[in-house]
Amino acid sequence: MPAAPLVDSHCHLTWPDFEGDVPAVVERMAAAHVARAVVVATSVEDARRTKALAATSPLLVPTAGIHPNDLPEGLDDALAELRSLVAEGGYVAVGETGLDYYRDSTEPDVQRRAFHAQCELAVAHDLPVIVHIRDRDGRTAAYDDVDAVIGSHEGLRGVIHCYTGGPDHARRYLDRGFVVSFAGILTFPKGENVREAARVVPLDRTMVETDAPFLAPVPYRGKRNEPAYVAHTAAALAALHGLEPDEIARRTSQVAADLFRFAVE
User: In the chain, how many domains are there?
Assistant: First the structure.
C-alpha cells in the first residue's frame, strides 16, 4: 500500500451508511495516508450537508450538484437553489451531475437539461464538473451524449468519475480536456474493460476514488466502502502501469490537487 499521500476524489460520506461513524472513518483514512476526500453531493439538500460535514475536518472538501437520478419535479427551482449555494463559495466542484440511462428513472431530455445547466454553473464559477455516466450493458448512448454535452461548453473542465467504459470513450473525454477517475472496479475479476481504459489514460490525467459507500475494492468487496480503501485501487493502478504504489499516489494526488485546487500534504 502507498505511504505517499492519497486523495479519494469521490465519496458520499453524508449518506446514512456513515451516520455516526464519520469521525472514525476520517481517522482510518488518515491512518491510510489519505490526505483528502472529496465529499460529493447528489442533491441540493445533500450539498448543504457536504459543506457542513467538510467543516468538521480539514481532510474533507465538499461539492454541490444534483445527480441525474435525483432530479426533482421542480427542477428549475432546484437549479436556482444550487446556483445560490455555489455562489456562496466553499465548494471545490459542481456535481455529481451527468447522464444515467441505466435506470431510466428520469427522462433523458430532462437529464440533459440539468447536465447542461450544471456545466454552465461550473464554467461561470471556474469550478470543475464531476460527471456520472451509466448505461445498460452493450449500449453507449449515455457515453456519447456526455461527450456531446461537455463538448458544447467552452472552458469546461472536470472529471469522468468512476469510469466504467472502455478505452475508446476514455480517449474522447481526454480529448475534451477531462480527467478520468477509477474506482474499486479496477480490482474486480470482471473489470477488464476498465483496466484496459486505465492503461490508456495518462497518469497526469488520472485520479482514484472509492465512490463510497459503493464498490469496495478487493479485499473488502461486499462491505461498505470508505476513503481508506482507495489505497487498494491505487495499488491496482500501480500494478497496471508497472510502478510503485507511492508513485501512483503522488501522481494521482497531484492531478486531484490541480483539478480541485487544494493542497495535498
Answer: 1
Q: 21 vs 25, 84, 224, 226, CA distance in Å?
A: 6, 30, 12, 11
Q: Does some domain include residue 174?
A: yes
Amino acid occupying residue 199: R
CATH code, 27: 3.20.20.140
Which tens digit of pLDDT belongs to each residue from 33-51? 999 999 999 999 999 999 9
- How does the average pLDDT of the chain come out, rounded? 97
Contact (CB, 8 A) for 99 and 66: no
Residues 6+ apart with CB under 8 A from 180: 159, 160, 163, 170, 173, 174, 197, 201, 205, 206, 207
pTM, 2 dp: 0.97
Q: Which domain holds residue 167?
A: 6-260
- Side by side, the strands of the sheet bearing 129-134 are 94-100, 129-134, 158-160, 179-182, 206-208
Confirm if 11 and 209 have CB atoms less than 8 A apart.
yes
- Looking at the domain assignment, is residue 265 inside a domain? no
Q: What percentage of the chain carries pLDDT values higher than 90?
A: 95
